[in-house]
Amino acid sequence: MNMKTTDNITEDTVVSETPVNEFNQLVKPVSLWGDAWRRLKKNKMALTGLCVVGFYLLISLLAPVLPIYSYSDQTIVHQNLPPSFSSAGETLLRVRHAEMFRQAKAEGRAELSAKQTEELAALQNEIKTDTVHNRRYILGTDALGRDVLARVVYGGRISIMIGLVGTITSLFIGVFVGSVSGYFGGWIDNLLMRFVDIMYGLPYMLVVIIMMAILGQNMIILFVAIALVSWLTIARVVRGQVISLKNAEFIEAARSMGASTPRIIFKHVLPNTLGIIIVYSTLSIPGFIMNESFLSFLGLGISAPRASWGSLVSEGVNVITLYPWQLLVPAITMTVFLFAMNFLGDGLRDAFDPQSKNRV
């Protein structure tokens, strides 16, 4: 009898501790991350952006082991070949034949001359004997005979790395300054925010251009220059979030239990601002890539033989009328990635926004 009573009490206790709704139905508790992921999955554009970004990251990480040529490998005889699934020799022969036919037509001839025929025959024999003509350039080559596909893949590694490094640097500085300023307030807040206002008054791109022109075209200098004042916005955003949280009940409870100030900031306050930080990160990566592209377009970005999407676009602009694929391939690749990042950032913003629970 006692054992049955104990079992009944245990069952009643378990049932009473399980959350139920007004219809007495069991409710499964959902965490903030689980709820955000559920709403993100309903946003088809954001989910598509996530898949595209993941694909780009995977290709960038696996670039050294992918079956593509080196980004710096020059084959002058294959310069400016159009995109083709045929071998480089076949493509080269087709291009030379078309060039000779246009030349003959311009000279008023309907057929190739004997000299042109001999050149084509010599080229055919060379293609049969030289194994270098067995290469395939599905996205064409540039003016130095380098594979555009390899240049775009390795250029993507640099552009994405610049976006990630710039974002991480800006987050590290901005989150620290914003959290300290918002939590302590007073003269510390005034001092830090007035410094932020002064930095905001500087012409950002002009400062970056001057740094790159004076200190030289170095990748490290480029990272420092791009991240120089990029932390200002996130510092203000985090400051506002910390100010709204520092007097909350759970913060007061942590203080009453004797938690130190650094523990309160890094263990209680900042985790509750993680959603806005993640959203800002996804939206700032495209900005860093665009800034680097602008610098590369001015000739102050990545130096040869390395390349980024911006430098490839800059090179392609000069030959767009003759060889449009040298501009279109990196431009389309970069545009797709930037659109995907923006869609993902918008989706994360809606997913982490508590007011959007009933909208998505």
Please provide a written account of the structure.
The protein has 360 residues and is an all-alpha fold. It folds into 2 domains: 32-70 and 148-358, MetI-like (MetI-like fold), CATH 1.10.3720.10; 84-134, no CATH class. It has helices spanning 2-17, 32-42, 44-61, 88-106, 114-129, 148-184, 186-200, 204-215, 219-226, 232-245, 249-256, 261-269, 274-297, 309-317, 325-352. The two termini are 52 Å apart.
CATH-scheme architecture of the largest domain: Orthogonal Bundle
**What is the H/E string?**
HHHHHHHHHHHHHHH
Biggest β-sheet strands, sense, barrel: none
Could you give the distance between the termini? 52 Å
Subcellular location: Cell inner membrane; Cell membrane
Keywords: Cell inner membrane, Cell membrane, Membrane, Peptide transport, Protein transport, Transmembrane, Transmembrane helix, Transport
GO biological process, one term: transmembrane transport
Membrane topology: Multi-pass membrane protein
